[in-house]
Write a structure and sequence with these properties.
- The complex is a heterodimer of chains A (169) and B (217).
- Chain A has 169 residues and is an all-alpha fold.
- Chain A has a single domain, classed as RNA polymerase sigma factor, region 2, helix turn helix motif (Rna Polymerase Sigma Factor, Chain: A, Orthogonal Bundle), CATH 1.10.1740.10.
- Chain A contains seven helices and no strands.
- In chain A, helix 1 crosses helix 3, helix 2 packs across helix 3 and helix 3 runs antiparallel to helix 5.
- Chain A is globular and about 55 Å long.
- Chain A starts with a helix and ends with a helix.
- In chain B, 80% of the residues lie in helices and 0% in strands.
- Chain B folds into two domains: 54 residues; 120 residues.
- Chain B is elongated, with a radius of gyration of 27 Å.
- In chain B, helix 3 packs antiparallel against helix 5, helix 4 packs antiparallel against helix 7 and helix 5 packs antiparallel against helix 6.
- Chain B has seven helices and no strands.
- With 217 residues, chain B is mainly alpha-helical.
- Classes of the chains: A mainly alpha (169), B mainly alpha (217).
Chain lengths: 169, 217
């Protein structure tokens, strides 16, 4: 029972942020939901081994990023085309459906189209940044130095800005 | 569009309810149902492990039996038994040690730990997907040598009976040459299969690993 209530609490608090990271990896809504499901399953399976060595958020993000990377590998194994042109519109679920929300969806769609063209590791770095994860925690999640995270972030943000400049011109 | 401007708007993205209960209306019911599903999966896994246990026992018993019988047959028939006993015992000990090492390695790599930092996760993925690990390579060499030694008993018997050759080293050389040929064939066949099914994924993981360490200064 304790495992169940802990699990429920973790999922309730983190489901949206898990899903948002999946958006940076999987374009297709159905496949994204499958990956999301797989992450929920992996969290359940890993819960018995959670000893609190890392913060819950760090633990959740590790499972999320590692499952997303595994998904990309599975795609490779199936010899399926990993969509990097991002020509398909991303089907995102938002709270409201008013005009403002439509504009917001359009913006987010543009952002994810760009993120999905990045390499798998860069996607993880920028997704964590967008989740407001600190550089220190990102470094713990990825297992690299904080300096490395900062350099990567700088490079990725520059690349995304260049893409935006190209779009505007 | 500036990344930081859009950062907050991104929080409007909401996760869908678990796929298996699209009929459920609220998150609480949805999670409950997911937990039930996960628990039944756990039970299934436990049942399958319990079912596999006797099979593991039988397989381990058979392997032990074959190992002991082959060892005894070498001891009984080989004329230069005492001269080669240290080598054989050493080979057998290495064989047992490597079997245990391999078992532990397979057991460790068999369960994927998603909670590891990404760098470790990728490192273990590289180990899972690489062509051949050092313990496995050594294990196959030692196992093949033991097999060649065991087969030399048969070759020496044939040489003595039909060709009147009493020098046991001839049988050992033929036996080792034969096993080496089979080994080389097996090696290339396995490598070709690995290239077809795993090499691309292996390269992809290596690329991710390299990329993760890139930019570090």
């Amino acid at each position: 029972m304790e495992k169940e209530s802990t699990y429920k609490e973790i999922i309730k608090l983190n489901r949206d942020r898990i899903y948002r990271i999946c958006c940076g990896y999987v374009h297709n809504a159905d496949e994204r939901n499958d990956v999301f499901q797989e992450i929920l399953i992996n969290i359940w399976k890993s819960l018995d081994n959670f000893r609190g060595q890392a913060a819950v958020s760090t633990w959740i993000y590790r499972i999320t990023v590692n499952t997303c990377l595994s998904y990309l590998r599975t795609e490779q194994r199936r010899n399926r085309h990993i969509d990097r042109d991002a020509s398909e519109t991303i089907d995102l679920l938002t709270e409201d459906n008013n005009e403002e929300s439509e504009e917001q969806k359009h913006l987010l769609d543009r952002l994810y189209r760009r993120i999905i063209t990045l390499s798998p590791i860069d996607r993880a770095v920028i997704s964590l940044y967008l989740e407001d994860v600190s550089t220190k925690e990102s470094a713990e999640i990825l297992g690299i130095s904080e300096a490395n995270v900062r350099v990567k972030l700088h490079r990725i943000r520059k690349a995304l800005k260049e893409m935006e400049d190209d779009y505007e011109n | 569009m500036k990344i930081d401007d859009i950062k907050k708007q991104r929080f409007a993205i909401k996760a869908p309810h678990a796929k298996m209960e699209t009929t459920m209306n609220n998150t609480e019911d949805s999670i409950d149902s997911l937990i039930e599903k996960l628990k039944s999966e756990d039970t299934k896994l436990m049942h399958s492990l319990k079912r596999a246990l006797p099979l593991w026992g039988i397989a381990a018993g058979c392997s032990l039996f074959v190992t002991i019988v082959s060892f005894i047959s070498i001891m009984g028939t080989s004329a230069d038994f005492y001269a080669g006993i240290y080598l054989r015992v050493l080979l057998m000990l290495i064989f047992i040690g490597l079997t245990v090492a391999m078992y532990l390695q397979i057991k460790k790599l068999g369960t994927i730990d998603y909670t590891e930092p990404v760098i470790l996760f990728l490192r273990n993925a590289v180990k899972r997907y690489r062509f051949i690990s050092l313990p496995y390579f050594l294990f196959s060499i030692v196992a093949s040598s033991i097999l060649a030694l065991a087969a030399s008993v048969y070759f020496n018997d044939v040489l003595m009976r039909y060709f009147d050759v009493s020098d046991t080293s001839v049988g050992i050389i033929i036996s080792f040459a034969f096993v080496a040929l089979v080994y080389v064939f097996g090696y290339y066949a396995t490598k070709s299969e690995w290239k077809k099914s795993k090499a691309a994924i292996f390269e992809e993981i290596k690329k991710m690993q390299k990329e993760l360490l890139h930019d570090s200064e």
